[in-house]
Amino acid sequence: MAWLDRDRTPMLFATATSVTGGIITLTIGRLLLTDTPKNVVLIWAAAVFVGVAVISWAATYAIRRARKGSQRAFLIISAFDHKYYIASFVRQLHNALDRINIDLVLKVPDRDYDASAQYHHLERTLERRRDYIGGVIFAGEVDELRDDLAMFCRKSRLPVVFTDLEPFTESEYPGNSVYVGYDTAQLGELAGQWLVKHLRGVRRPRVLIIASREHSARQQECARVLKRELKDVTIFIDDSCEFARARAYEAVLNYVKSLGSHQCLHAIFCTDDETGLGAVDALAIPSPATESTVVVGIDGIAEAKALIDSGTSPYRATVVQNTHQLALSIVDLLVKMHRGRQFPRRKILEASIYEAGHR
């Protein structure tokens, strides 16, 4: 009966109903032209119409029941290659949805942090919106995609949960969308507070911030905290690393080479753990300027935590975005929206610091 689905196969549905209607009309017309009593014609016609109605209802019921038994939610992500935090989030979201019998459909971009690649998946998802109960958008390139994201919400009419980056202010969110995640400025603030404690008492501390233009509030807030608490601090921000480990590696090496013979690099703040690992790779190359350099990152991925726990690595702390907590919060809101219940426009989760001795 799937071919009778008006939404999935509109041409076949229109053809089938038109042909059926034509046959019925032609048959009734021929009967009226013969000597068949009119009451027999009317009874026959009524029986045919009732039969068609019953078949149509049964097909619709079967289709709706099949859909109900195989609910699906989409996830559109902004990056995929070597992004361990995103991989952890995808796994946690899949598990949380699977526990309530909802299948996850993952939309991976052709290129990381590329607006056109994300737009492509928005268009494809919109075309098949009836396949989904709603979904999650791990937003990226929001300055370029803001209007497209708003359009997607309006046209799809599906519950949409944004996470990672906020594409709108609280008053701008379309009625069928929400944000669940961490405050990106607070993440930078927590990293800054950890660095202040570590660098307190150090004369003229020097801090390198490895960052990206995405999540710029992370580096800005960290720098603000450092300048407020450490009056003689020197800060250099490189925001060209795009959350890429290799770029962070090169950025640290280039910065160390630029230092004078008596200058030291006391700390590196990386706005995600991927670049934090790249910074640690670069610090493995011996230099008098980096003998006591420490690294702090953001995300709380397993590899970063393992280095922190080892006690022998420059990696000393990471600001944790708990993917398990994030996935559960997203699924909870998505289900509430799907069922027509009340929900908050924004839900901000609390991050925490993971450092040596953390239990």
Q: Which descriptors would you attach to this protein?
A:
Rossmann fold; 3 domains; 12 strands; alpha/beta; 6-stranded mixed β-sheet; disordered N terminus
Commentary on this structure:
This protein has 11 helices and 12 strands. With 359 residues, it is of the alpha/beta class. The protein has helices at 10-33, 38-69, 84-98, 115-127, 142-156, 184-199, 216-229, 245-258, 273-283, 302-310, 323-338, and strands spanning 71-76, 102-107, 134-138, 160-163, 177-182, 206-210, 234-238, 267-270, 294-299, 315-320, 346-349, 352-355. It starts with 9 loop residues before the first helix and ends with a strand. The radius of gyration is 29 Å and the shape is elongated. A 6-stranded parallel beta sheet has the order 2-1-3-4-5-11, sandwiched between helices. It has a 6-stranded mixed beta sheet with strand order 7-6-8-9-10-12, with helices on both faces.
